[in-house]
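Table 4 source record.
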Amino acid sequence: MIAGIVFSFQYTFAQWVSLNSNTISNLNDVDFYNEDFGIAVGNSGTIVETTDGGNTWTDLTSPTTDDLTNVSILNPDTFFVSNGISTTQYLWRYNSTTGWQVVLVLGPPYQSTIFDHNAYAVSNHIYESPDGGANWGIQYDVPGTTTFDDIKFTNASVGHAGGNVSGIITYSTYVVRTVNAGDSWWYLDVFSFPNANGFSALDFPKEDTGYIFAPYYNFFSPTDSSQLWKLTNFSLGPDINPVDSLWSFNTSVLITTFHDYVNACKFLGTDTGYAVGNKGFIYRTTDGGIDWTNDYEGTLSLRGLKMINSLIGYAVGDSGLILKREIGTSTETGQQDIFNAFIYPNPAKDVAILKWTSSKEQKGNLQITDALGRKVYDLPSMQINSGMNSLKLDVSKFQQGIYFVQLNDGISSTILKMNLLE
């Protein structure tokens, strides 16, 4: 009589793993053009590049020894970097043919972003380049003592830029919004914000839905505590002078005390989101920012974040730290309930078959999410049989793209990538 069965199996899981960055400099930002090509920048002019999804990183020649705070990739041949607080602030453009060129100069620290082959940059102005960053024009003059340090576009038309305006003893959030690709910018009504907290990170996963982390300040010094705001229902109010129109909106305070200073955040749709902060943790939400769990716990401050999709992403921080969140494969010996899972055909068109082996009869559930983390299919309860299982998936109504299939029995789970064709 056999008392138990021991299996040797492979299973997939998502985790953050530390990569060899080839540097010990503090890293401040990271960007990826696709799953393979990415660049991270940091102190003392550090620039490192990967062409194999983070497996190896190589040093690139830098145009400066200043601390670099921002990187944006237009394509594998062209990218932009900018320096932090220095005697003079620059935005550099690198092109594989022309090399390094200074394209903007003499503003506060520049932050840049790329959307739909257009390049944007912010400081005490909002700039736009329609020709890949070779030439720039001013779209918006930032008033008073305000300086923008973040700009993001939700789509080709809708974008937001955020920063802080200094007051008597603290900072308060200042955000502007465009719905016509930057031809016009109007600021968000400050009285629609819940208070005068400062700003550290923002993201707008949808045109009418945004998230802002707003740290508490104490006499111009940020504390390790923040609020998380959710902004919805935007309306551009009329004014006698259209230039003075402003956006009103509804604000929900999702978290009154978020115990960290958040340096970067990314929401993939309105459910799944990630954030990194000074305490070295990577935070994750799956309910639109209401509840957060620690997806990674470290000790080195994390300053930059890039999510390629709901499961693959990168975070960078002090002492050359680069973390990658990915679907990994592990081989273990032990009692595992779900294993040897696979999908065929893959790529699929109208129908895909999911097969797996279970060590016992039990209940399970299945979810399918798209590359932005949006749930597109949910089977909350299904019967899993002992031995080989097979499930036919009707994917004929899904759009072309990458999807992730998660099978779970409450104890073990597996996540498989599924590629759908038209």
